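Whiteboard transcription, Tuesday session. T.W. wrote the structure tokens on the left side:
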């Protein structure tokens, strides 16, 4: 299976999981090879991540435009992309969730693509002058809530975890991302 075919299948699975359907897992390559190949989703995510940082720097919610560094943006993404699987491995080690770790990370990685695509929509509209900063921020908050719910759904289904455990994972993901961003960007 080529990477592109695997990515398209995974996106189909991502949609099914968003609808709460367990059959979405059938679309993912859940082998050891599929686990490692899922990290290649960063190829699609990286330009979206850099674009998001550029737009955020150009159109801050308050104050003057900020400095923007594509290299720093890519470094931040790379650290987040590596740190979260390590954190989850540590959190699930010797728990009943450890058996489903690879499935969770594989699905998490592939579902990052639709999460980023959706999150970039108001920024594109802002960048094109179609909406104001205030509208983009409002839309971004709404889409962030949807993305967090989706991440919760993925954690719950992929790890077969109780709702509260899934909430903890989503919160941990957010905290880790914020900490890495703060560490690198000041």
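and on the right, the sequence the group agreed on:
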């Amino acid at each position: 299976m080529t990477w592109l075919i695997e990515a398209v299948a995974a996106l189909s699975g991502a949609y099914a999981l968003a609808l709460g359907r367990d059959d979405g897992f059938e679309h993912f390559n859940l082998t050891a090879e599929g686990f490692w190949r899922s990290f290649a989703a960063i190829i699609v995510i990286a330009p979206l991540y850099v674009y998001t940082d550029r737009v955020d720097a150009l159109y801050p919610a308050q104050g003057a435009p900020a400095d923007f560094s594509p290299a720093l943006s890519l470094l931040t993404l790379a650290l987040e992309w590596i740190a979260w699987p390590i954190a989850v491995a540590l959190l699930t080690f010797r728990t009943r969730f450890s058996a489903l770790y690879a499935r969770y990370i594989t699905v998490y990685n592939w579902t990052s693509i639709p999460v980023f695509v959706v999150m970039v929509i108001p920024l594109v509209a802002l960048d094109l002058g179609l909406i104001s900063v205030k509208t983009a921020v409002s839309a971004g908050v709404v889409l962030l809530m949807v993305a967090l719910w989706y991440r919760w759904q993925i954690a719950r289904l992929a790890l077969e975890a109780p709702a509260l455990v899934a909430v903890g994972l989503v919160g941990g993901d957010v905290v880790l991302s914020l900490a890495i961003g703060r560490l690198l960007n000041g």
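Someone added at the bottom: Residues 101-127 form the longest helix (27 residues).
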